[in-house]
Amino acid sequence: MADSRILVAVPQHPRAEGAGAEQLRKIRDAVEADGFEVRWAVTAEDADAVLRTEAGLTAALVAWDLPGGAARRGGDGPGAALAPPSGTVGQTPGGAAVLRRIGRRFRDLPVFLIMPEEGVRELPLWVSETVVGYVWPLEDTPGFIAGRITSAARGYREDVLPPFFRALRRFDDTHEYSWHTPAHSGGVAFLKSPAGRAFHDYFGERLLRSDLSISVEELGSLFEHTGPIGEAERNAARVFGADLTYFVLHGDSTCNRLVGHFSVTRDELALVDRNCHKSVLHGLVVSGARPVYLIPTRNGYGLAGPLPAAELAAESIAARIAAHPLAEDAVAPGPQYAVFTNSTYDGLSYDAVPTARALAASTPRVHFDEAWFAYARFHPLYAGRYGMSVDAAAFPGPDRPTVFATQSTHKLLAALSQSAMVHVRPAPRAPVEHDRFNEALMMHGTTSPLYPMIASLDVATAMMDGPQGEWLLDEAVTEAIRFRQEMVRLGRRVASAGDRPPWFFGVWQPPEVTDPATGERLPFEEAPARLLGTEQSCWLLEPDAAWHGFPGLTEGHCMLDPVKVTLTCPGITATGEMAEEGIPARVLTAYLATRDIVVEKTDSYTTLILFSMGITKGKWGTLLDALMDFKALYDGDAPLARVLPGAVAAHPRRYAGLTLRELCRQMHDQLRSARLVELLDTAFQQLPEPVFPPQHCYQRLVRGGTERVRIADAADRVAAAMVTVTPPGIPVLMPGESTGTPDGPLLRYLTALETFDRRFPGFRSETHGVTIDEDTGDYEIECLNG
């Protein structure tokens, strides 16, 4: 079995001679006869390689006198500074290094330590806290020693499973007939047709057997929160640091809707980060609340930044409410709820407690939309940057608000798509009674949950529990840092080579960092990776720093997440200065797609890539190679038909005969002459005037009280549906807002975007809420009649 492997780390080679080696081989043979696989290592380095690659280990047998020093990146673990036993003065035994690595990689893995002669009294105290037993190979029979190891391994294999997944496996092992939904009855129905058989063979019987009905009482209830499901949710609350945790099977979008639906009611005020996901607006439509928008800062690349601290201040919020046309006849003068994005798409997170404290002066409920940040609790680099860090210890007293954190668990933790969680930390100001919150959950949930999704949430929780969670994240952080540094080094090598044009792609990050221990300023690419991986100060956005380009920030307010890597293209700076030549990011990402590299997000001159737990050096090395190849193609003015053959084939009249450099020149000139990035910034900073609450517009929409209007004819109309341009994925127009005058910021931007999309077919933005007339190609938006 894949989860039945045992590490044997001993100095003897498997074919070595001698009584000791022979006894170890007999122990190995007995372990294998008991159904386990053995991974044999003869040095600390070999053992480290096994530990890094074999997550299915269930036990380990380690020799204290194993050759080799501290395992890679493992010398900072427990006991690193303790004196070694006699006979090893001046060096750390390889066994100690392996034990430290095991402690960092696994939680409670049973480890047996092989000792030479007496030895135990000479061991550091931490060793006895790490191992479950000691082995003198020649003093007991091989079968007895193997039995001790495999017995512990079986117990660990069972204990390591989280509650719901353990119960689901047990149920699957009983091989019961199902007389309930779903009708495929464990996959049997699929076997009765050719297409169904192909489906069954592709996904496998185990998945289909675990697709069960809520009639299976022994697995518990998602809505009653009983049995193994309830146990799994309570375990997740412990691991994620919440008082209450709820599993949601329709993604963070549903989490946002249900929290909004619970927190604010019709004609109450809600404070909403304008850099919000559309599901936040859907929650307001359902609840009937009246949004008062808070405006984030933006930079020259067009990236949305954080809400500045000044925007969160009570006096600033009070001024916004006083000036808001829909606030005057709200049912209460103060907002009941505030929601903001943490971290943003581009990896910007807030100092959580000061942010919650600022908002608490205006509202009793604060919602951290952490769709892209479920991992923050599990690595010290993100300490204090996530919603559940706002507890009674960090924010004591009666002013503490109730805090919600909604997380798309599947995005950057290991869960199946659509798997999500809501975490709650109630405060006396705004109590959250389970039964009442559960009513909102049931309104937005399903009575036909997919059990493998629930199991994936349970397993994602278990993977983060204990030292292994930090270990998994540390790999992603470390690889992201290595890639970032290599990009800078590669850019410097290109610039100094002298045999090619000196430009290269950049990375959005500080050019220098400070070592807080010494005060020394270091170029980013020369800073020790361990410094960048542990010191939060290296990633803080210093006020008015040119590299990030955001105005109005205060010290410590905002941090850049290293695993969200934004590549920058030549053509514009973070402060908005445009160059004569440029390479729009849409062209770059179109080329990367031909290399089977799919990025997360593309703006005008930036593209976002994510370093998740599945990252490898080979993966990011392939990206580096593709970037260098694009540069060579651009510098050589390669024919577009060679670089982007799909675009030329789809639109031959537009692109036939063009070169890559010419396409980039045309697109850059269009962006620069139309000032598209600047217009986007203005549209986000100068918000449209609100006329009606969102719910009013939705009621008109479903009852035929709206019509589609060409953008050219949309002046001074009221929007009936949200308009969201992706990138950057932030609504530029909300239901109930006025479109404004023809020369106003909104229509000028949408007109410029329509012109760009017409001129560059195949490179258009994905614009939600905009339809294209099939006959004329005109862009249309939904507006209220009259």
UniProtKB/TrEMBL annotation:
Keywords: Decarboxylase, Lyase, Pyridoxal phosphate. InterPro entries: OKR_de-COase_N (IPR005308), Orn/lys/arg_de-COase (IPR011193), Orn/Lys/Arg_deCO2ase_major_dom (IPR000310), Prn/Lys/Arg_de-COase_C (IPR008286), Prn/Lys/Arg_de-COase_C_sf (IPR036633), PyrdxlP-dep_Trfase (IPR015424), PyrdxlP-dep_Trfase_major (IPR015421), PyrdxlP-dep_Trfase_small (IPR015422). Belongs to the Orn/Lys/Arg decarboxylase class-I family. Residues 73-94 are annotated as: Disordered. It comes from Streptomyces rameus. It comes from the Bacteria. This is Orn/Lys/Arg decarboxylase N-terminal domain-containing protein. It holds the Pfam family OKR_DC_1. Residues 406-420 form the Orn/Lys/Arg decarboxylases family 1 pyridoxal-P attachment site domain. Coiled coil: none annotated.
